[in-house]
């Protein structure tokens, strides 16, 4: 099974270290006792992702990530869509390095693949704690 990384034409990223990113995703999945199935990480623009958010989730707002997991026993597959526009904007907003924010979003999407939710304040707090733990372990991209 494989982790694949794709770029929409409008969202090229030179900053991503593909081999390292794949290893981090596999590590987090293993921590949650999941085998890695076919996982696609797709970097897109804000416009592409808001259209997906409207179409599939009936949400009419910009987001940095949308994750679609598929489970087969202890194996997780799925598609993770990340808006590089939103990651850049959030990095500026939170005054962090772009690569640090990109790592946080990749970790966030991987945690969603592991079944974590962030739909309530307590679940968001738990998700953020896990993000921070993995950021401490792996650092920035």
Properties at a glance:
globular, alpha/beta, 23% strand, Collagenase (Catalytic Domain), 5 helices, four-stranded mixed β-sheet
Describe the structure.
The chain has helices spanning 18-31, 46-57, 84-94, 98-113, 121-138; strands spanning 3-7, 35-44, 65-72, 75-83. It has 141 residues and is of the alpha/beta class. It has one domain: 3-Layer(aba) Sandwich (Collagenase (Catalytic Domain)), CATH 3.40.390.30. The longest helix is centred in the last third of the chain and has 18 residues, at 121-138.
Summarize the structure.
By secondary structure, the protein is α/β, with parallel strands linked by helices.
Topology record:
Elements: E1 3-7, H1 18-31, E2 35-44, H2 46-57, E3 65-72, E4 75-83, H3 84-94, H4 98-113, H5 121-138
Parallel strand pairs: 1-2, 2-4
Antiparallel strand pairs: 3-4
Helix pairs in contact: 1-4, 3-4, 4-5
Number of strands: 4
As a percent range, the share of strand residues is: 15-25%
What is the number of helices? 5
Kindly name the structural category. alpha/beta
Low-confidence stretches: none
How far apart are the first and last residues' alpha carbons, in Å?
23 Å
CATH class term: Alpha Beta
Biggest sheet statistics: 4 strands, mixed
Q: Please name the CATH architecture.
A: 3-Layer(aba) Sandwich
How are the strands of the biggest sheet laid out side by side?
Answer: 1-2-4-3
Could you name the CATH topology? Answer: Collagenase (Catalytic Domain)
Shape: globular
Radius of gyration from CA coordinates: 14 Å
Question: Share of helix among residues?
Answer: 40-55%
- What's the CATH H-level superfamily name? Metalloproteases ("zincins"), catalytic domain
User: Structurally, how many domains make up the residues?
Assistant: 1
Secondary-structure element pattern, one letter each: EHEHEEHHH
Would you tell me the overall average pLDDT?
A: 90
